[in-house]
Amino acid sequence: MKVLAVFLGLIAVSSAIKCFNGTQGDKNSLGKSAECNKTITQCYSPNNTKAVEFEGYGCGPCPNGTADKGCVECTKDDCNAWTAKTVEYHCYKGEAKANCTSNSGMNCFSARSNYTGNDDKLTKGGCGTCEKANFNTSVCLDCKGDI
To answer: pTM above 0.70?
Structure first.
């Protein structure tokens, strides 16, 4: 009977959730996750699948007033691990300004000034890098930043 009582007592003890804590930075800025207070059942982090203002990571629910700024909550150990932040920016695509999003930096591509070919995609340019657009850098120029 004593063994059963001890066993049931062990089952009743729940372990705390583990969360990463800190602010957005590079992949190593958060360090290791840590066990939260036993009463806490969730973690929070930025929703980096879209451009957001919120940059915090921690134990518990999203801080007040941050849900509309991109804070999201999750309920499993280490569920708030770092992800690259998505940014919104613009590139020229032909004569028009194109809206771009990326989690690997603001990159645009265009044809080099000495390009004499007629590849429409290359001559118009656009979002991303020459490599991702499948162009050789001898005919394609990578640019960084927002226009």
So the answer is: no
User: What is the per-residue DSSP string for the chain?
Assistant: -HHHHHHHHHHHPPPPPEE--EES-STTTT-S-EEPPTT---EEEE-TTS--S--EEEESSPPTT-GGGTEEEE-STTTT---PPPEEEEEEETTEEEEEEESS--EEEEE-TT-----HHHHH-EES-TTTTT--TTTEEEEES--
pLDDT at 42: 97
Query: Which structure tokens are listed for 2?
Result: 């004593």
Please give the pLDDT value at position 13.
53
Q: What is the mean pLDDT of residues 91-100?
A: 94
